[in-house]
C-alpha cells in the first residue's frame, strides 16, 4: 500500500506526530478533592483550589500519579522516579490560577512504544517521546449571553495525561490506528475511558510534508481534534494544503491551526511569532514527585493482560485468525465476553457468533457489549445447545433473536417455543413418508438420476413440515434410504 | 498592677487562669486602645464584635476547664491571612471587598487554642515592601519617633502587626516573612519577631507572595510570648505540600535561660563596610552578652552572603509574577471594564495593583522569559543552593548565627520611597536565612543614637526553633530592653 501522496512535482510523504490529552480516570481532580464526573451542572464541581481562591494550595492526588505510571508501564516506557511539576503561565478566563500546573523538563514517564495494528495483519511501532501529568482548564462558553462569556470550572483541575508520540506516522490511517490502539490500551488498564465525545481524549496533530528521503519539513500543529475521523480528515486536508503551498513556490510557516469540522478544513490560529511565552518554572507549591522502583514494580504487577499479549494468546490458545483476534481484543469488554463464551467450547464458533451475530444485533440496537441483552454465559449456553444437538444451527439463530429481544436463557426459549430438535426416528420417518407420498414428480426426477440435487429440496420440505426441528442429519439419511439412493 | 494592655501574653495568661480579669475585659482594653490608636493606621479592619464574641467563648471555655494554650489572648492578624467572613485585602485595592469563606490554617490553629481576633493589620501590598508605605490603605506609622518627632516607618511588610504590638494595640500579632518581613519590622518597632523554619507553619489560606520563601510567624512583646504563640501557629498541614510532618515541640519549655557551651557563629560577611557604627557596636555587644552567659563565640564565613539580595530579588518576584496572575478581575475582587478581554485584564491590574507590586510582577515576568530564564532564574536557584550550603557547613561548627537584624534603625517615612534598591537593602541581613529556609528571630536589644529600637538576629538550624528561642531569651534578658515609645498617637485620638 503506497502511503505517498502524488503532487504536481512528484510524490510527497506526510510526517505525523500526535500529542494526545487523555483524561485520567479518577474520582477527584489532580490537585483537589472536587469530583470529576461528566455532565454535572456548570460550576458544581469546583473546589476553592480549582477556582484559584487566594491562599489556596495544590495537593497531588496519589491515584492520578499511579494512573500515569500504569499508563507508562503499558506503553513499555521508562518511568522516572523523580519528576517535577512546572507552571505554564498564561492568562485566560477559564484558567483561574493564571497558570496551568504541568510537567515540562522532567516528566513522570519517558520513552516508550505503541505497536499499531494495520490492515492485512501488518503492525508498525510508533515511538512515545514522553507522558506527563497536567491540569485541564475550565470551559469558556461564548453562546450563553450576547455580551458575556460564561466560564464553567467543572473541568478546571481535572487530571490529564499528555502522551506525546514521535513523528513516526506516515498516513492518516496510521494516525487513526495510533489513536485507536492508544485508546484500547488506556481502556484495558483503566486509566482513561477514551470517550472522545465527552472530551476524555483529544489530540493535537503535528503535520509536515517532505519529498521521501528529505529532512523533516516545517510542521503545523492542529489543536484539539476530538475524534479519530476528524484526526484523519484534518491530516488529509493539511497535507494537501502544505503540498499545494510548497508546489506553488511558497514556504510553510510554523503555525498553530484549528480544524473546522463543518467545512473539513484547517485554519490558522496563531503564528510562531504570536506564540505564548509560557515562562515555565518549577511550581514552588509542590515538591518534586518521587517514588521508589519497588512501588513501580508493585504497580506493574497489578497491570492486567495488555491487548497485544491477549491477541497473541487468543491466536495461540484458540487458533483464532489475526483478524478475529484483533477484533475481539479491541475492547477489553469484548475480549472478556469472548473468553467467557468460549471457555470449554468451540472457540472459533464462539468468535463467529460474537463477530457476526452479536455485533450485528448490538449495532442494530445501538448498544455496546457492556449493555448487551445476551450475556456471555447465555451465548455459551446457546453454543452448548448446538453442540449437544438439542437445536440445530439454524434454530439457534432464531433462538438468539429471541434472546436479544427478551434477554431470556436459551434453554427456556427452546422449551417454551418447543424448538427442541426432533431426534425421534419414528416422527421424522412419518414426515419423510408424507413428503415422498405428496411429491411423485420430484421422486421420479431423483430416481431417474436426472436431478440428484433434488434431495436438498426434499430435506427442505421435511424441515418445513417439522418447523425446522427435525435433525437434518437424520432427515438426510432417511430420505436417501426411502428414495433408494 | 500594670495596665492590662501592657502585659505580655504569658502574664495575661496567668491572670486569666487566676481569674484576675476575664478575656472579655482584656479584649475590651485592647479594643479601646485600637480605637485610640487610629492615627497609627495599623489596622485595615477592626473586628470588635467578633472579638468580644470570641472573648466570651474563651472565658466560657476556661470556666469549663477547656482553656487552650492561647485561651482569651487578643491578637492582631496580618491582613494576608484569609479569615472566614472577615474582609481580607492583602493591603491591595485589587481584592476589593473580598471576604474569604475559609480560614487560614495558621489562624484556625490560633482560634483552636482559644485566641481572640481583634482585627486585620496593614502590610505592604501583597507583603512587598520594607516600610509599610506600599499599602492601598495608606502608610502605617511607627509608634516610635526620634527626638526630632518626624514620623518613622514601622518596617515591613508586617508593619501593621509590628506597630500594633509595639503600641499595645494587641497582645501579639501574626506576620509573614518572605525576606525579612517579620524580623525587620520587629527590629524597627522594638519588639520580638520570629520567622520559623520554612515548612513549620502551613501556608494554606495565606495569600501567597513568593511560595518558596513565605513563612508565617509571631510578632510579640517577649521571646516567651513568641514561643507560646509559635507553638499554636505551627504544625503539619496536609493541605500544604511544603508543610513538614514533624511534631511541634514545647517551645516554652525550651526557654531554660541556659546557653552554656552553645557555639555562636559571627559571620564576617555581615560586617558591611558602610554599616553604621551603632549597628556594629550593638552586634559586638550582643555577642558579648551571649559570651557572658557562657556561650562560645566562633568567627565563621558565609561566603555567598553578598549574592543573597540579588538572588532574592530574582526568585521572589519570579514566583510573585505567577502567584499574582489569579488577580485578573474574572472571579473575585475588582474588575475594570475594557473593550476586550486583554483590555479588561490590563485595566483591572493597572487599577488594582500599586507601583511596587507592578514593579515586581514586571521583574518576575522578565526573569522567567524565554531567553532570560537561564541567566536569571536558573542562576539564582543555583546561588540559592550555595547560600543554603554556606549555612549547612557553618552549622557543622556552630549552633546559632548572630547578626544585626537590619542595617539601620527605622527610617523617616518617604526617605526611600523613590529608590527601590535602597529600600531592598533593608533586607540584607534577613534575606540569606529566608533563602536557606532557616528559623530566625529578632530581639529588641538597644536604642539607636536617635532613640529608636534596634534588633539583633539569631539564625538557627532547620527546625531548631528551640535553640533560637532559648538564646533569644538570653539576649533579651541581657539587653533589658524596657524602653517604651511615647504614646503620641493617643493625643491625636
Give a verbal description of the structure.
The complex is a heterodimer of chains A (485) and B (493). Chain A is of the alpha+beta class and 485 residues long. Chain A has helices at 62-74, 172-189, 228-247, 293-301, 307-318, 322-329, 332-342, 347-365, 376-387, 393-406, 410-417, 425-438, 440-447, 454-465, 472-483, and strands at 5-7, 10-23, 82-83, 86-89, 99-102, 112-117, 123-135, 139-141, 150-152, 159-165, 201-210, 220-225, 255-260, 265-271, 281-282, 289-290. Chain A has 3 domains: 5-298, no CATH class; 305-417, no CATH class; 425-483, Arc Repressor Mutant, subunit A. In chain A, the strands form 4 sheets. In chain A, strands 1, 2, 6, 7, 10, 11, 12, 13 and 14 form a 9-stranded mixed beta sheet that branches. A 3-stranded antiparallel beta sheet of chain A has the order 5-4-15, with no helix packed on it. Chain A has a two-stranded antiparallel sheet with strand order 3-16. Chain B has 493 residues and is an alpha/beta fold. In chain B, 38% of the residues lie in helices and 13% in strands. Chain B has an 11-stranded mixed beta sheet, sandwiched between helices. In chain B, α5 (159-166) runs parallel beside α6 and α7 (223-233) runs antiparallel to α15. The longest helix of chain B is centred in the C-terminal third of the chain and has 24 residues, at 374-397. The model of chain B has no long low-confidence stretch (mean pLDDT 97). The interface between A and B is large, with 28 and 43 residues.
